[in-house]
UniProtKB/TrEMBL annotation:
Annotated protein name in UniProt: Uncharacterized protein
Amino acid sequence: MAALTAKPFALADTVFKRHYHEDVVYGYRVPKELEYFDYSPEQLANRQQQAALVCLVDAYRSTGHRATDLDPLGIQKIMTIPELNPARYGLTDADQKFNIDGIIEAPSADGSKTMTIAEIKQALEHIYCGKVAYEFEHIPDTAEKRWFADFVEATSRDNSLGKAKKRRFYELLARSEAFDNFMQKKFGQVKRYGLEGAESAIVALDELFSLCNHSGITEAVLGMPHRGRLNILVDLLKYSPRALFHKLQGNAEFPEDLPASGDVISHIANSPKLNYGCKKDLHVTMLHNPSHLEAVNPVVAGYGRAKQMYLYDNNTDPGCALGDRLMGIQIHGDAAFTGQGVIMETLGLSNLPHFSLGGTVHIIINNQIGYTTPATNARSTLYTSDIAKLVNAPVVHVNGDYPEEVARAVSIAFEYRKKFRKDVIIDLITFRRWGHNELDEPSFTQPHMYNIIRARESVPKVYERKLEDECIVTKESAQETRAQFTNFLEDELAASKDYQPEADHLKGKWSGLVMPTEAVSTIDTGVDIGTLREVGEKSVSVDSALKVHPRLAKHHIQLRLKRLAEGQSVDWATAEALAFGTLLKEGFNIRLCGQDVGRGTFSQRHAMFVCQDTENVYVPLNNIGESQGKLEVANSNLSELAVLGFEYGVSIQSPTILPIWEAQFGDFNNTAQVIIDTYISSGETKWLRQSGLVMLLPHGYDGAGPEHSSSRIERFLQMCNTPMDLSDAGVVQNPNMHIVVPTTPAQIFHLLRRQMKRNFRKPLVVAGPKTLLRLSLATSTLDEMAPGTSFQPIISDTLASSPELVQRVVFVSGKLYYDLAKTYQENSARIGSKIAIVRLEEICPFPRQELINEMRSFTNATEFTWCQEETMNAGTYSFVQPRLQSILPKGQVLRYIGRGPLAAPVTGISRVYKAEQAQIVKDALADL
C-alpha cells in the first residue's frame, strides 16, 4: 500500500481512507480499520539521524503523564521521571539545534522545523506535563497513536479561548456553586450529593454538548451516578427547579393517579433539547439510574444502540456511519470505575458488532476517594482509569481546578472519538468538598485531605479571580451572576407549592400504548396457516451460494420443511421461528441476544447459517419480505450483567423492538441480578418506563447438577407484586412482570407474539425448556397457532376422560408434566380417571379464574397437590401455595409433593437424583 507522505496528519486534511464493513445483520456502516501508513523517505531519514531525539520525544509521549501537576489538592507529588532527562540520551547541549520533521509536530507558532534542545524540552513539558496529561502509547494501532500525538502537539500551539466561552464557563461554575449553597440553606438535611469541588464537570459536559451540536450529532445518551446529578439536571438539562423542590418537600414526582412509587432525587432524569447556535437541536437523554452506582452504564449503551437503529432506519443521509448522529456519554465515580465489574463488562462490549455505539466518551469525576476509602485502598493500579486499557482506550487526565484545560481535554477526547469511533476516557481529577454526602463528617477518616480542602477556595472562586485579572468579569458582575440565579431559585421554590407534576411517559414512539390496569393474558395471537408455512419455509431458505453444514441440511432444514408441510409435530425452534417471522412481516424489529444464540446453546435454533467455505453469515428471516422488520442476531461475549443491562436499555427505547436475552442456562441470570432487581422488576413503578424485554432462561431438572438445573424462578416470583390474598374474586392483578413456564411450542409462539401485540409492554421471564426442545411429546400443530388461538395460562387436563370421577388433582408446571404423563399412560389401567394433571403455564399473573373454571369439572375431587421437581425452598411452591389454597374447596389443604428443602438447587449425585425424581412421580400418581 502506498505510503502517506509529507504532513500526513495536517489537521485540516482527511488523511485516512476509511474502510467500512456491514455490522452483521443490521447493516450499519461502521469504521473497521485504518490504512497502513509510513513516514515519507525524508522523515524516515531524519528520524534515523536524530535517534536520540526520537527517544526523548517518545519518552514524553509515554511517561510524561507521570510528571504532571494533576492533583488540585497537591497531595500527590509531581514525580521526577529519569526518562525525561535529555542527558539520558546524550543530548547535553541545550543550544544544539535539530530538525524535528517527522519527530514532533512543530509546536512553535511559526511552524518552524528547527528547534534547540532547550526549546524542544520546554515545548514537550508544556504539551505533556502541564495540567492535561495523556496516555495513548498503550494503543496497539500505530496509526491511532501517531494521530493522537500529532493532534495534541499541533493543537498545543494555541489553545486560548475567546471571552464569550470563558464567560460561559464562569457562569456555569458560579451557578453550580450558587445552587449547592441554596440547597444547603433550604434543604440542609437532604443528601443531595452536590458538585462542590468538581464543578468543572459541568464545564466538561457543556463543552461536550456544544461539540456534539456543532458536529451534526443530534442525539446524546447520558448515564451518570448521583454525584453532581442535580446540578447538571437543573442547569444544563433544563429540569424544572420547582419540580425538584416539590419532590424535596415530600411530594411525588408523578401525578398521583398513576401507579408509580417514584424514586429518590439522585435517580431522577430528564430529556431536553439543547442548542448551541446550530440549525438542529441536540436531544440529550439522561437515563434514570439506581443506587447501584454503575449499573446504568450498559443501559446507556443499549438505549443508544436502539436509538441508532431508529436513526439508521429513518436516515436520509446514505453516507451516515455508526456514531455520526448519536453519542454515548457515561459519567463515573473514581472508586466505582475501578471497583465495579460492570465497568469492565460494558467496556468489553464497546467494539463488538451489535453492541458498538461508534464510541462513547467517559468522564470520571475523580474525587480521589470513595465513601471513606482513599485511592491507595481502592485500587491496585496507578490510575483509576487503568481498567479502560482493557479496550486500549486513550486516557486524558486533567486537573479539575482549571476549567479551560478541562475544555481542552474534552475537545481532544471528542476529536479522537470522532476520528476512530472508539471509547475514550477523561480522568477529571477533582475533590469532594464535603463527605460522601453533605451530612457526613469526612475528617473522621481523612483529616489531612480535609484540612487542605477547608483551607482552599472553591473552583468557581479561583476561576472568578482569574477572569477578573483578565478583565472578563468584575466583582460586581460576578455578584450579579450569583444573585440572579439565587433569586431565580427562590422564585422557583415559592412556585413549587402550587406545582402539579406531569407524566413524561408514553410519548413520541410510545404514544398509543397505555398503562394497563389489569393483566391481559389471553389475546388472539394466531396467524393464518398459509402464512405460517411461508414463514417457516423461508426460515430455512438459504442462498444457493452458501454451503450449509450437511447435518443441518438433513436434520434441521429438511425436517422442518417436512413438519411444516404436514402441519404436525412442530418443534420448539420452529414455533419460535414462526413467531419471529410473523412479527417481522408485521414490521416489528427483533433483537435476539445472548451467548451463542444464533445456533442456540442446545444446537436447536440455527437462526443464522454459517457458510462452510467462507464463514459468511446468513440470517434467513431477514429475507422474507421487502417491508419486513429486521432480526438482529447478537451473539454476545461471555457477560450477563452488562449484556442484560444493554438489552434492557434497548427495551425502554422503543416499543417496536422485541428484545430477547437468552441465558445459556437459567442460572446465568445470577450474575445479572442487579439489572433484574433495579431495572427489570422495578423500572416501571419507579420511573414509569415500560419494558417488553424477554428473558429466556433454560430451566429444568435433568441431572445437570446444582447450577444448570435452576433459573431460580422463586427469585423472580418474589419480586412480583401480585397480591398474596386472592380469596376475593374482585382482586385485580397487574403484575410488574409476567413469569411463565411454557410446555409446548405453540405456547412460546403465542407468548412471543403477545409481547408485541398488546398495547402495553411488560417484562416476560420464561423458565424455558432444555429437554423439551426435542422431546417428541412436546410438539404442536399449526392449527394450535392458527387464527383464534392464543396463549393458555393453564392447559386443561387431557388424560382423565371422565372429570367427574377425578379424586386427586395434581397441579404442576414445566417439564415434570411429561414425566408424570408418561407414567400415567403406562399405568392408565390402574389410575383410570382418578387423577387429573393440570399444568400452570403462567405463574404470574396467577391464573385464578382459569383454575376456578377448570376445577368446576372435578366435582368429586378430595385431594389437591402441588407437584414440582425443584426443592421445597425453591421453584414456584411458595408462590402458588397460598394462591391455590384460596380457591380450593372449603376444608381442603394443598399437599406438597417434591424434594425437601436443600441449600443447593439439587443434588449432584446422579444416583440420588434419579431416585428423588422417581419418587416424586410415584408419590404424585400413587393409589388413593
